[in-house]
Amino acid sequence: MLNTLSGRFLILTTIFVLIAELMIFVPSVARYREDYFLDRLERAQIASLALLAEDMIAADLEAELLENAGIYNVVLRRDEVRQLILSSPIPSPIYRTFDMRDPSAWVLIRDAMAQLVDGEERVIRVIGNPVQDGGLLIEITLPSAPLQAALVDYGIRILILSAVISIVTASLLFLAVRIFLVRPIKGVVEHMQAYAEAPEDARRIIMPDAGVVELREAQEALQSMQTQLTGALRQKERLAQLGGAVSKISHDLRNILTSAQLFTDRIESSEDPTVARLAPKLVNSIARAVNLCESTLAFGRVDEPAPRLTRVELAEVVDDVIAGERLAIGDHDLTFEEDIPPGMNVRADGEQLYRVIGNLVRNARQAIVSSGKSGLICVHGAEDETAWRITVADTGPGLPKKAQEHLFEAFQGGTTRGGSGLGLAIAAELIRGHGGRLDLEKTDETGTRFRITLPKSNLTLS
Question: Could you give a GO molecular-function term held by this entry (predicted)?
């Protein structure tokens, strides 16, 4: 109960109402004490006026007047003359005098609280202004016990009333919170639980119906999220089915294309001028198709082995990559440059690192060759206390705008015309498997630069 929203709201409401009632209680008791004194002063003046009218009254009548007024004696000052009008024996000396002619609120509250807790029987004096201009000043002496009893009784009644008001108010607010907040929130939670059991079922998506603006906004946000998630799950399922089919097709197509590649080797030896002119284009087309099939199969393997981390001589890996790319450039004016510090060893899977660097260098070579201009590809290595960094930079035409928007997304971030974008997606995934990052540092009309960061610690780079 106490851990629920409505339970805590009930407790807080009760506490706050009690605090408010306490703030009312203190000045209310002070006001009651002031009225008590003013009432006694008025009674005393009325009794003294009766004596002045008769000039002389019997002792028993005087005692009755004092008893009815609840006082011991009355002093009235008229025409600058201080006159004892009514009197009776005082049981003890006067303890304290209170001036009610123009007291401040703080004085009234302070004296009232002191009187409320003072249980001693004392005699007090009260000074006030006579009503109806009945004199210059009136003084009375009276016992403090009746006043203290009256204040206690009044305080108890105020506290009981405050408690009743607190309980009623808290109960009403408790019911209101249960109806207008807790119940709708529980409804949202139940919708979420039902949706979690079958997120593909669109019938379980919440329909906003709350009357409270904030709750309705929360329901609408949840509805939007559930709708997007359901669509994403459906798309993921379809893509999984499509991926399985594509992998099978790519596998069979690769075998067919491999056989076709063998036939093209025979065609290249033909002496027919037309065949000799078209054969290289056919060979290149088939080679690109085979490469696409192999990349698709590689991307589709969810069981890509984890990297076997060993110490790898970076210069050897880069030499192997560049040696293979030199064979592919033909007579194009393209220069390769290696800037690897001697003895730089990185902790990586040598085969996977070769695939990543090879993919970046191959993309750079294809971009420069397709531009028809001369160019430079540079592979640079560096390290510090935290990581090894490998940079692959070129002087090509830069990446297309579309490729930059979906750079590491499969089938969307192709860097060349007709490219699938699988190469960079696979490369980024392999580097993440090492706990590192593959980042595009720069690309414009002056060239492109990628950076591979491999951490020296066992923690993944953020």
Answer: phosphorelay sensor kinase activity
Structural domain contains residue 414: yes
- pLDDT at residue 257 above 70? no
Are residues 25 and 162 both part of a single domain? yes
Whether 276 and 312 map to the same domain: the answer is no
Counting every residue, how long is the chain? 462
Which tokens hold the place of 324?
């293979």
In this structure, are residues 364 and 399 in contact, taking their beta carbons and an 8 Å threshold?
no
Residues 217 and 355 in one domain: no
The reported pLDDT for the residue numbered 454 is: 94
Dihedral angle of Cα 156, 161, 163, 168, to the nearest 10 degrees: 170
Q: Helix 213-268 to helix 183-197 angle, to the nearest 10 degrees?
A: 20
User: What are the structure tokens assigned to 71, written together?
Assistant: 């006082």
User: Confidence band (pLDDT; 50, 70, 90) for 161?
Assistant: confident
Say if residue 44 is in the same domain as residue 158: yes
The CA-atom distances, in angstroms, between 413 and each of 188, 330, 428 are 40, 27, 12
Q: Which of 387, 369, 370, 389 is nearest to 379 (CA)?
A: 389
pLDDT for the residue 332: 81
The residue from 262, 278, 298 where one domain ends is 298
Q: For 345, which DSSP code?
A: E
Q: Per-residue pLDDT averaged across 67-78, rounded?
A: 81
Q: What angle do CA 67, 72, 73 make, to 5 degrees?
A: 110
Give the single-character DSSP code of 269: T
Q: Tell me the whole-structure pTM to 2 decimals.
A: 0.43
Neighbour count for residue 289 (Cβ, 10 Å): 17
Show Cβ contacts of residue 30 under 8 Å, excluding neighbours closer than 6 positions. 105, 108, 109, 111, 112, 113
CATH of the domain at 309: 3.30.565.10
Say what the pLDDT of residue 313 is.
Answer: 94
Task: Evaluate whether residue 27 is within a structural domain.
Answer: yes
Same domain, 270 and 354: no
Do 247 and 383 lie in a common domain? Answer: no
User: For 410-455, what is each residue's pLDDT tens digit?
Assistant: 655 455 544 455 678 888 888 988 889 999 999 998 999 999 999 9
Domain count, the chain: 3
Place of tokens 């880069």: 318
Sign of CA dihedral 302, 308, 309, 311: negative
Looking at residue 421, its pLDDT comes to 58
The pLDDT, as a whole number, for residue 275 is 64
Average pLDDT, the chain: 79
Instruction: Give the range of the structural domain holding residue 145, as residue numbers without chain letter.
Output: 5-169
User: What is the sign, positive or negative, of the torsion defined by CA atoms of 129, 131, 136, 141?
Assistant: negative
One-letter amino acid at 345 equals N
Helical ranges in 99-144 per DSSP H: 105-117
